[in-house]
Specification:
With 135 residues, this protein is an alpha+beta fold. Helices cover 32% and strands 32% of the residues. The chain has three helices and six strands. The strands form two sheets. The chain has a three-stranded antiparallel beta sheet, with no helix packed on it. Strands 4-5-6 form a three-stranded mixed beta sheet, covered by helices on one side. The N and C termini lie far apart (47 Å).
Length: 135
């Protein structure tokens, strides 16, 4: 079993700093980012980083990528995550539908945050392929 330790300490009246194993830190507060927002952002970040690695291994040149994540939350507090929808947008020359579809399927398989959150509810992915952006 791998153990990762994150130290959270108070930094001001309502701010808390999380010191991460990477050496970086994140400040969370009532002003934002809030912990649930960070979980939703982590799903997008994990998916993006996983996709980036998959495209690299598949030797697919993607000029740009953007992922919009909608976290589906309960209305009552505490807010629980009930699922998520990701909209992946890719830009590049000669991107093929089959390759992008396969990469998205692999990202679902290898993203650890996806596997963690899917226990709370369904996670849906959609994607669109766009030509290279004009400079």
């Amino acid at each position: 079993m791998l153990i990762q330790t994150v130290a959270v300490s108070r930094k001001g009246q309502a701010d808390f700093e999380a010191s991460l194993p990477s050496g970086k830190s994140i400040v969370m507060s009532s002003e934002g980012p809030k912990p649930v927002e960070m979980i939703i952002a982590s799903l997008g970040g994990c998916s993006a980083l996983t996709l980036e690695e998959i495209f690299k291994k598949m030797r697919i040149d993607v000029d740009d990528m953007a992922i919009e994540v909608e976290g589906l939350l309960t209305e009552d507090k505490p807010r629980l995550i009930l699922g998520a929808r990701l909209r992946c947008r890719f830009w590049g020359k000669d991107l093929k539908e089959e390759q992008v579809s396969r990469a998205v399927d692999l990202a679902k398989e290898y993203c650890s945050v996806h596997h963690t959150l899917e226990k709370a509810g369904p996670i849906e992915y959609s994607y669109e392929i766009n030509p290279p952006r004009q400079s």
